[in-house]
Specification:
Layout: H1 2-15, H2 30-41, E1 48-55, H3 60-64, E2 68-74, E3 78-80, E4 86-89, E5 94-105, H4 118-122, E6 125-137, H5 147-152, E7 157-165, E8 179-183, E9 186-191, H6 199-213, E10 223-225, E11 233-234, E12 240-244, E13 250-257
Parallel strand pairs: 1-10, 3-7, 4-13
Antiparallel strand pairs: 1-2, 5-6, 5-10, 5-11, 6-7, 8-9, 8-12, 12-13
Helix pairs in contact: 1-2
């Protein structure tokens, strides 16, 4: 069943066609969902450029026994942010934008280390940037069926826009910076990374543990998109997005429909 579900997601992503019903029996646990994700990963020729980490909020975090989820970010979908940046979404599926802090892996942890304190996780990071995650899936209902379904289609990721680096990020002051997202000039959400459980570095700790447990070899240079600071904001082709990180920078992108690949 995992192979069948994975194949359906891969085919519809390639064709850029949306659909409305989950293609099989939906995973009931995160472990079942990662089996589907891993089955899809085994069939994707594109290189992995990083991983998105999404937060799972109460009460679902109690139900699923975890407060975060992970999904791969593929190299062809990663770009340096400019004023002409595009965010590609599956027009008949689900599409959203998320303002995020992006952490870059500088050194690879030992494969036998299974747990990471915040300090140990931060020691493997060599840069932090502001950015925008494009969250999109051909499955229109992905954001309504819970985190296991999200995990089963690459964590609902379809791209990453990398903004400027944050100087002196190890001081942690960026976490208290208010971030605002606007769509077509209208404010749709605000927030800070300080509101995250264990902070944005908690997402790094989670991901390192997740990948090692799954037997995935971590690579230096991978990006970690650490979680939506202002929320998950649905978008459609034609809309213009602005994520304002205050003195850390402001990013822009225009949403367009994902073409077939």
């Amino acid at each position: 069943m995992a192979q069948t579900i994975a194949a359906h997601f891969l085919a519809t992503r390639k064709a850029a066609t949306g659909f409305g019903d989950y293609p099989g029996t939906a995973p009931a646990t995160l472990d079942e969902a990662y089996v589907i994700q891993d089955a899809a990963l085994a069939q994707v020729p594109d290189a992995i450029a990083g991983w998105k980490v999404g937060r799972i909020l109460p009460p679902l975090s109690e139900k699923y026994g975890c407060d975060r989820l992970a999904g791969p970010i593929f190299a062809p979908t990663v770009f340096t942010a400019t004023n002409q940046s595009k965010g590609l979404v599956f027009s008949n599926g689900f599409g959203a934008v998320e303002a995020e802090y992006l952490f870059r892996i500088g050194t690879v942890p030992r494969s036998d280390q299974t747990n990471f304190t915040l300090e140990e996780a931060a020691a493997h990071i060599d840069a932090v940037h502001i950015g925008i995650e494009i969250a999109s899936s051909p499955f229109a209902g992905i954001n309504e069926m819970g985190p296991a379904v999200t995990v089963s289609d690459f964590g609902n990721n379809n791209g990453l826009l990398i903004g400027p680096a944050i100087p002196n990020w190890r001081s942690g002051t960026y976490a208290n910076q208010s971030v605002t997202t606007r769509i077509d000039g209208e404010e749709v959400g605000t927030g800070t990374a300080a509101a995250f459980s264990r902070g944005a570095i908690g997402s790094v700790s989670f991901l390192l543990e997740n990948l090692i447990a799954r037997g995935i070899a971590i690579q230096a240079g991978w990006w970690i998109s650490t979680g939506a600071v202002t929320g998950v904001h649905p978008v459609r082709p034609g809309q213009k997005v602005e994520t304002d990180f205050g003195p850390l920078g402001t990013l822009h992108c225009t949403i367009e429909a994902q073409p077939p690949r």
